[in-house]
Amino acid sequence: MLTVDGSRVYALVPTQPQTLVVTDRALHVKARFALPRDVRYRGVVRARAATYAFGYREGRVIDPVAGLRESDAVVTRVGTPSGSWTVRHADGYGWWEWSGSASANGQRLALSYHGVGTSGADILDLTRGPLSPPCASVSTGPFLGCSPEVHGAIAAYDEGWIATSGSAEDLLVLDARGNVVRRIDSGFRNEHLMSLVVDSATRTAYSLATCFYGREGLRAVAIAAGTSRLVRRAPCGNDLALGPGQTLLAVESADNSAGASVVALSRSSGRILHRWRLPAYVVAVAGA
């Protein structure tokens, strides 16, 4: 829902239609962009000085009892008159994006899915248009992205990616095209793991247990060595993000929805350094 790039903050605002607001770090508004009305945007990333918003376009009802609809996956290059692409057509499924990340060189965009009957991830080449999945004609299943083992968060790492698999144990290391090249034991045993952030400077991945599964705490993974360390068992939360200095930020929530408090954790000890209790629900955090 928001990202920080240099001196600017980019945030999706739930107006009708949705708006991308750009502010400075003091939250003074510098620009506003109206987004296509028929898309519900889930996230925003920056790549090579361009801004990409990703979301889904709802279609027909496919489960009347639950009220679930099929949905296309959409990527929009903000501020361009024709820069919007349907990267996954619904075809009876809900291509609801869970996570998005730009590669270190800004040439690729990774999207993971967690929608109505969908999972996996796609790696999109931003240097070629129109944007489309690399395996559109050879997908491993109608409901899976081109990297089918990914489930949850995906983040840039070196020239490729690191991602969660939804299982408790495995983190996946992928090459630039999204092929799994290595697996790392996360150290978790009773968790539907979908939480991941990467500190590129130390080549460390952090994962935080939710407050509603095993509550197995915060773990730090040395990616190159492939080892996992329990930092602290107590903390739990959603939407883990790198915070300022040597901190991590997370939303405390009893389930996978928004929470009303944000915590700052020490990366080295996992100790809660500060807790902000807010008068409204928090859906995303970002820090730099």
What amount of the residues lies in strands? over 45%
Radius of gyration: 18 Å
Compute the number of helices. Answer: 0
Q: Return the domain count.
A: 2
SSE class: mainly beta
Number of strands: 23
CATH class value of the largest domain: Mainly Beta
Helix content: under 10%
Measured distance between first and last alpha carbons: 15 Å
Poorly predicted tracts of residues: none
- H/E series, N to C? EEEEEEEEEEEEEEEEEEEEEEE
Q: The biggest beta sheet, please?
A: 4 strands, antiparallel
Q: Give the quaternary arrangement of the chains.
A: single chain
Strand neighbour order, sheet with most strands? 1-2-3-4
How would you characterize the overall build of this protein?
The chain has 288 residues and is mainly β. It folds into two domains: 1-185, YVTN repeat-like/Quinoprotein amine dehydrogenase (Methylamine Dehydrogenase, Chain H, 7 Propeller), CATH 2.130.10; 195-288, Thrombin, subunit H (Beta Barrel). The chain has strands spanning 2-5, 8-13, 19-24, 29-34, 40-47, 50-63, 68-77, 84-88, 97-102, 108-113, 121-125, 154-157, 160-164, 170-174, 180-185, 197-199, 204-208, 218-222, 227-232, 238-242, 247-252, 259-266, 272-282. A hairpin with a 5-residue loop joins β14 and β15. The two termini are 15 Å apart. The model has no long low-confidence stretch (mean pLDDT 93).
Observed structural traits:
288 residues; mainly beta; Methylamine Dehydrogenase, Chain H; Thrombin, subunit H; 2 domains; four-stranded antiparallel β-sheet; 0% helix; 50% strand; globular
Q: Quick recap of the structure?
A:
This protein has a 4-stranded antiparallel sheet, with no helix packed on it. Strands 5-6-7-8 form a 4-stranded antiparallel sheet, with no helix packed on it. The chain has strands spanning 2-5, 8-13, 19-24, 29-34, 40-47, 50-63, 68-77, 84-88, 97-102, 108-113, 121-125, 154-157, 160-164, 170-174, 180-185, 197-199, 204-208, 218-222, 227-232, 238-242, 247-252, 259-266, 272-282.
